[in-house]
């Protein structure tokens, strides 16, 4: 009873104000206009509602990171062993590199490229060599209208021929080591002219699927 009396003794809180209804200013049939009193605008100096700040930043080296992630994922698929090593091929705009690796024992069984003189000869593939022999000392201004003889070396071997020789050397090393199958890893490179020329002797030996 004491609590009830104390509650009744407290003054009641005022009710919120209802929208003011003004008399209709224009009548069109049964339609009329109501005017509601809206709260005033807080103004330019009033504090605004805070929203969470969103920042978007681009990753640096996204292409390089994606290539590394892709190669790391492919290494799980092309995992070389002693009996079935991994044949990894890297092809640039001018040269081709091939590595036969045993990932379990961490050994390189074969390495070949189109820059090796032992495989592609001298000069290596992709270099155009021109040698000029002068009969007169032109650098000293002693040229007096005589004939000028130019001697050019043999033209460079095409890149496809050098890539094919790398494939043949790979097959020879595999025969010496007694390897009958490989795990071919192109590292995501498309089959261009050098890549296809390299795959011809390798596929003829039975390493690559037809």
UniProtKB/TrEMBL annotation:
Highest taxon in the source lineage: Eukaryota
Keywords: Ribonucleoprotein, Ribosomal protein
Family matches, as SUPFAM superfamilies: Translational machinery components
Positions of region (Disordered): 38-70
Transmembrane segments: none
Bias type Basic and acidic residues, positions: 47-68
One GO MF term: 5S rRNA binding
One GO CC annotation: ribosome
Cross-referenced Pfam families: Ribosomal_L18p
GO biological process annotation, one example: translation
Keyword Electron transport: no
Family the UniProt entry places it in: Belongs to the universal ribosomal protein uL18 family.
UniProt name for this protein: 50S ribosomal protein L18
Originating species: Zea mays
Gene this chain is encoded by: LOC103631773
């Amino acid at each position: 009873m004491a609590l009830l009396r104390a509650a009744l003794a407290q003054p009641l809180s005022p009710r919120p104000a209802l929208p003011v209804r003004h008399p209709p200013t224009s009548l069109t049939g049964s339609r009329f206009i109501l005017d509601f009193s809206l709260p005033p605008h807080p103004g330019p100096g009033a504090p605004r509602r805070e929203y969470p700040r969103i920042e978007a930043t681009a990753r640096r080296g996204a292409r390089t990171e994606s290539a590394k992630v892709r190669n790391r994922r492919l290494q799980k698929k092309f995992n070389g062993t002693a009996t079935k090593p991994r044949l990894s091929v890297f092809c640039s705009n001018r040269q081709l590199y091939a590595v036969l690796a045993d990932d379990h024992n961490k050994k390189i069984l074969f390495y070949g490229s189109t820059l090796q003189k032992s495989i592609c000869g001298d000069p290596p593939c992709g270099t155009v060599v021109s040698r000029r022999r002068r009969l007169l000392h032109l650098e000293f201004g002693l040229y007096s209208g005589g004939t000028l003889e130019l001697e050019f070396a043999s033209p460079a071997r095409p890149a496809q021929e050098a890539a094919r020789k790398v494939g043949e050397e790979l097959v020879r090393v595999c025969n010496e080591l007694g390897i009958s199958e490989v795990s071919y890893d192109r590292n995501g490179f498309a089959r261009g002219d050098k890549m296809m020329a390299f795959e011809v002797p390798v596929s003829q030996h039975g390493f690559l699927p037809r």
